[in-house]
Amino acid sequence: MKKIKVAAVSYLNTKPLLYGIKRDETLMQEIELIEDFPSKIGKMLVDDEVDLGLIPVAYISQLNEWHIISDYGIGSVGPVESVCLFSDVPVEEIEKVLLDYQSFSSVNLCKVLLKNYWKKEMVFEQASENYINEISGTTAGVIIGDRVFEQKAIAKPKKFIYDLAEEWTYFTELPFLMAAWVSNKKLPEDFIEKFNAANKVGLNNLDKVIAENPYSNYDLHTYFTSNISYTIDEDKLKAMNLFLKLIKEL
To answer: 75, 17 in Cβ contact below 8 A?
Structure first.
């Protein structure tokens, strides 16, 4: 039987979703699991190198066929803490933004907010691997994932840190959906049912997930219960559709 190729983000925020998947022996026999950063796995799904991915939702517009196959994803209702614009100056004074090479939804979220919410024009530059060191003066940078906590933990963090998910909620009065389990083809219903159930296992066992992933830069219980909102509901889908519409208008 041909295995279903599954790609998932390797950040801390996916650990609760992957916890049950990795422990389901039957499910793991049916899939080939790949973990990498968001923009890479999104491109893999678009290029049909995988069948299913926990991908940045901004990639949906590049897919000829797509299906959200789980009730769970990576979302927020207010501050998410791990998707931020770092700057030495307030947003009104920023002249250039370096765009995190690991990101796709978050860099587009920054562009959407700058155009529609902050109403600020500026230069965007696709960042290189060591771009964080280039954030200074009027050059800001989008940083996502675990590296945000590392930046916030250093002795001299940037003077202005804009939580982009929180700014989106200020702008739209909606939550935000950063990533969802999306397939580029129809998958068997029995597989979808098992896969969805496996996602919930870690959410029901967060203490075990946290114990398995010790982390000193931020409290993971707060992150998993207050910052990340894992259930995909109608408001998150509404937010996703609005986000995709605004991306097309950039």
So the answer is: no
